[in-house]
Specification:
By secondary structure, the protein is an alpha/beta fold. The protein has three domains: about 120 residues, Probable tRNA modification gtpase trme, domain 1 (Gyrase A, domain 2, 2-Layer Sandwich), CATH 3.30.1360; about 130 residues, tRNA modification GTPase MnmE domain 2 (Four Helix Bundle (Hemerythrin (Met), subunit A), Up-down Bundle), CATH 1.20.120.430; about 160 residues, P-loop containing nucleotide triphosphate hydrolases (Rossmann fold, 3-Layer(aba) Sandwich), CATH 3.40.50. About 45% of the residues lie in helices and about 20% in strands. The protein is built from 15 helices and 13 strands. A seven-stranded mixed β-sheet has the order 3-4-5-6-2-1-7. Strand 11, helix 11 and strand 12 form a beta-alpha-beta unit. The protein is flat, with a radius of gyration of 30 Å. It starts with a strand and ends with a helix. About 40% of the residues are buried.
């Protein structure tokens, strides 16, 4: 492949900035822009060791004192010759260095091209490649741990177990059919049924992790709802940790939805502070109320706020009834705890009580820990270890397709169909799992037949 180059760090001012180069012939490109302090050529530098030197611009003039690293061959990130220059983090220096690399024979790398080359070279499978962007975009410690474990191959290893069991089953069947003269043990229906059921169960457990993976990666759309002036914006500010929304004593201050992300109870919430829901003749406020209702429809979690320092109003009761009827997860938040509280009726009249209730003060912070605990309970981490959690729709779709194929194979077996009809669905499951990791079915299957049964002796 040709030589590619790019700035691999943020474009803002920073202490360190990195230029990355990869491809056959990249060492010769690097030699044209780097002069080592020890006088050695770039291609002669010891592998994976930082060497001090000078980075040169297109005219051959020094532009920075840098550390260079040479990564030869398969042991680099991309699986091909690769080089890096660790510069001072001036965007000007990095831009000049990149232009020098272009003049020396490299081209601009495309989006994700280094990771794509790592996949094409076999250094990463697709689940690991996807984990790279998950790790970069992680917004919670849990998301980072899961991505780091996936990058280390945790999800690939879990899938590989099912994949190999299905390959063993399928390859043994084809060996029996295609080479009847060989001394190969025939398949028994009970063995096939057990293997298919076990594999289907494993995939079902894996598919069940997708909800948690989606929460880790994208967060939970959360609408903060309530009548005007009950403390919705104050709650948003308290959860976000800074004054994101305007707070006043004047009802109807919030005329539009205000969005912010916050980690609450270890769960990433995509908070939407809404306009107070009430009947109003103000056309601008009415538009805000309509957006609030849409936010309620789109949210996965509802935080319904009532002023806990005053008796319940009809507006409060109407909104509680509305939240109870949505079928969504919802928490009743009683605000203004620092101002005291009054007895309130229970939830017996509601279609469905709240999943939790918490009395909080956005001023003193009282009760926020209780609210965080309620959120954590609604979106638990689950039993799946980090790295073995599906985090995107592509992964979930492939696993679901494989599980459906195995279900079809098991049902065909129970119906008394011949093994070849059963194993056609088994092959479909293998193909789906191959798509998940980026492997190909036929090459693996052929290799397994030759490997296990000594075909051709």
């Amino acid at each position: 492949m040709d030589v590619i180059a790019a700035i691999s760090t943020a474009s803002a001012l920073s202490a360190i900035g990195i230029l990355r180069v990869s491809g056959e012939g990249c060492f010769a490109v690097c030699e044209r822009v780097f002069r080592a302090a020890n006088g050695r050529r770039f291609s002669e530098l010891p592998p994976r060791e930082m060497v001090l030197g000078v980075l040169l611009d297109r005219a051959g003039d020094p532009i920075d004192q840098v550390l260079a690293v040479r990564f030869p061959g398969k042991r680099s990130y991309t699986g091909e010759d690769c080089g890096e220059f660790h510069c001072h983090g001036s965007p000007v220096v990095l831009a000049e260095g990149l232009q020098a690399l272009f003049a020396a024979g490299a081209r601009q790398a495309g989006r994700g091209e280094f990771t794509k080359r790592a996949f094409l070279s076999g250094n990463l499978d697709l689940t690991q490649a996807e984990a790279v962007i998950d790790l970069i975009e992680a917004e919670t410690a849990g998301a980072a741990r899961n991505a780091a474990e996936q990058l280390g191959g945790a999800l690939r290893r879990r899938i590989e177990g099912v994949y190999q069991r299905l390959l063993n089953l399928t390859s043994q069947f084809y060996a029996v059919v295609d080479y009847p003269d060989e001394d190969i043990e025939d398949l028994r229906r009970e063995d096939m049924a057990r293997e298919l059921a076990d594999a289907e169960g494993d995939l079902g457990e894996l598919l069940a992790t997708f909800r948690r993976g989606r929460v880790l990666r994208q967060g939970v759309p959360t609408a903060i709802l309530g009548p005007p002036n009950v403390g919705k914006s104050s709650l948003l500010n308290a959860l976000a940790g800074y004054d994101r929304a305007i707070v006043t004593d004047i009802p109807g201050t919030t005329r539009d939805t205000v969005e912010e992300k916050a980690v609450v109870g270890g769960v990433l919430l995509r908070l939407i502070d809404t306009a107070g829901i009430r009947d109003t003749g103000d056309p601008v406020e009415r538009l805000g109320v309509e957006r609030s209702r849409r936010a309620m429809e789109d949210a996965e979690l509802l935080l319904v706020v009532s002023d806990g320092s005053r008796p319940e109003t009809e507006e409060d009761r109407a909104l509680l009834r509305q939240a109870a009827g949505t079928g969504k997860s919802w928490i009743h938040v009683l605000s203004k705890r620092d101002l005291g509280s009054v007895p309130r009726p229970g939830y017996e009249a509601l279609e469905r009580p709240p999943d939790a209730a918490a009395a909080v003060s956005s001023v003193t912070g009282e009760g926020l820990a209780e609210l965080e605990g309620a959120v954590a309970a609604l979106f638990p981490a689950g039993e799946a270890p980090p790295g073995q959690i599906l985090t995107n729709a592509r992964q979930a779709e492939a696993v679901e397709r494989a599980a459906q194929a195995l279900r079809g194979a098991r049902e065909a077996l129970e119906s008394g169909l011949t093994p070849d009809a059963v194993l056609a669905d088994g092959e479909s499951a293998i193909s789906a799992l191959g798509e998940l990791t980026g492997r190909t079915l036929r090459e693996d299957l052929t290799a397994r037949i030759f490997e296990r049964f000594c075909v051709g002796k």
